[in-house]
Design goal:
Radius of gyration: 30 Å
Shape: elongated
Strand content: under 5%
Pfam families: Lyase_1
Organism: Vreelandella sulfidaeris
CATH architecture of the largest domain: Up-down Bundle
Order of helices and strands: HHHHHHHEEHHHEHHEHHHHHH
Distance between the termini: 43 Å
Number of strands: 4
CATH superfamily of the largest domain: Fumarase/aspartase (Central domain)
Helix content: 55-70%
Number of domains: 2
Low-confidence stretches: none
Strand order of the largest sheet: 1-2
Keywords: Lyase
Largest sheet: 2 strands, antiparallel
Family: Belongs to the class-II fumarase/aspartase family.
Domain Adenylosuccinate lyase C-terminal: 357-436
Number of helices: 18
Length: 442
């Protein structure tokens, strides 16, 4: 598969490099060496053995290609890795290598080690995105724009409150991800530390501390809550990023033109149409998010696993889990640049507010006219005047002022105010202030 063309562009390139085959080998080795160290501390391994192992294996060259080839016969990467590691050790050390562990202990713990720095990177990116969103929403706290429901013009809002919702989505998903624990895995063949009795649980806790991972209550070979929780939390971040990209892409349409993605040489160009400036960042974010949603489905459907070891379910988790993290990180890198450099066009927002000839203000006008005309007639008059304003390209307030049922009866100043979108923004500005306080307090 041409991964460099079809998969990696949607991921964080730094994260891709940090999670390659060699990194997985390094993470598995870290688990095995830490296991030897905690066993030595308890007296199950002679003094000095763990350091000898470290000296011999940290400088050894593991053959990644051979390990990959060996997966086909064993079903997971730990089996050929353990074999190769044992072969690289001096004869007197071989018996202490991988003692009391099983393949799933190695793979699950290694995956947690790979993901730990990725979660830290995601938290930093989310904070960066939230900061950029906060600056945007404050700058446009009073910038009126069209609020749209079912893709149609509805009532005025501010651009600031739209961004506030983006910021809340980012922060909520950040907080959810921050609660995720990455537990060590250590249970042995059937999850009960066979042959080691209570030492097994002691080793499990000591391993967690040494590796900087969480200590689970019990080994979680077929209790996949940690994976389910992490996968769904990553999906929540992807959803928050996708919401921003979807809104931005709709607002960048030529006929709308209310925002534009940050410009850069060659960014958004078409292979055949020189005039185009495509919302490429939004497309990249949405493409990454769609893939994460698919991966999440795999992880959720693998949550129930049989007996003491999954048969295909566990194996199915590996790629979707790592790829989800890499895709989310890639998406957030794009979101950060997008929000930090988003071009906002208030003039086009005002233009679009007037696109219906003032009809977007028909609701407040109807409310003003109801005490005089009654609800049904007020609604009809406000709608008819909006259509006339659109067809004759006249100001909505002027058309209303000429209506015989209104002229001289309804206060002209009140009528003109009812037609002003900037005076019908509801709690938009208050919501921005409320959001800013919430972000600052969390």
């Amino acid at each position: 598969m041409p991964a460099g063309f079809l998969k990696h562009p949607f991921m964080s390139q730094h994260a891709v490099d940090a999670c390659d085959d060699s990194a997985m080998v390094h993470a598995m080795l870290a688990f095995e060496l830490a296991l030897a160290e905690v066993q030595e501390t308890s007296g199950a391994v002679p003094n000095g053995v763990s350091q000898q192992m470290r000296s011999q294996l940290e400088s050894a060259n593991f053959n990644v290609a051979d390990i990959a080839e060996g997966i086909a016969s064993g079903g997971n990467v730990a089996i050929p890795f353990v074999k190769q590691g044992r072969a690289l050790l001096a004869d007197e050390l071989k018996r202490y290598w991988h003692q009391g562990a099983t393949s799933q202990d190695v793979v699950d713990s290694a995956l947690m080690l790979l993901l730990k720095p990725r979660l830290a990177a995601l938290d930093a990116l989310l904070l960066r995105c939230c900061s950029a969103a906060t600056a945007l929403m404050e700058a446009h706290i009073d910038t009126p724009m069209v609020g749209r429901t079912l893709m149609q013009q509805a009532l005025p809002i501010t651009f600031g409150v739209k961004v506030a919702h983006w910021a809340i989505g980012l922060e909520q998903s950040r907080r959810r991800l921050s609660y995720i624990e990455l537990p060590v895995q250590f249970g042995g063949a059937v999850g009960v530390h066979s042959g080691w009795d209570v030492l097994g649980l002691e080793w499990m806790d000591a391993l967690a501390e040494r590796l900087g991972l969480a200590a689970p209550v019990l080994p979680w070979h077929t209790d996949r809550y940690p994976i389910h929780a992490l996968g769904s939390a990553l999906d929540a971040v992807a959803g928050a990023a996708e919401k921003i990209a979807l809104d931005v892409s709709l607002l960048t349409q030529t006929e709308v033109g209310e925002v534009a993605e940050p410009s850069a040489p060659g960014m958004g160009e078409s292979s055949s149409m020189p005039h185009k400036r495509n919302p490429v960042r939004s497309a990249m974010i949405r493409a990454a998010a769609k893939q994460v949603h698919g991966h999440t489905s795999v992880l959720i459907n693998a949550a129930a696993q049989p007996l003491e070891r999954g048969l295909g379910e566990w194996h199915a988790e590996w790629a979707p889990l790592i790829e989800s993290a890499l895709l989310v990180e890639g998406a957030l890198e794009q979101v950060a640049v997008l929000l930090e450099g988003l071009e906002v066009n208030p003039a086009n927002m005002w233009r679009n507010l007037a696109a219906t000839g003032g009809g977007i203000m028909a609701e407040p006008v109807a409310r003003l006219l109801t005490p005089t005309l009654g609800a049904d007639r007020a609604k009809a008059v406000s709608a008819e005047a909006a259509e006339t304003a659109r067809l004759e390209v006249r100001a909505y307030a002027d058309v209303l002022a000429d209506q015989p049922e209104i002229k001289g009866i309804v206060d002209a100043d009140a009528l003109r105010k009812a037609c002003d979108p900037a005076l019908y923004l509801g709690s938009s500005s208050a919501q921005v202030i409320r959001t800013k306080k919430w972000l600052e307090n969390n």
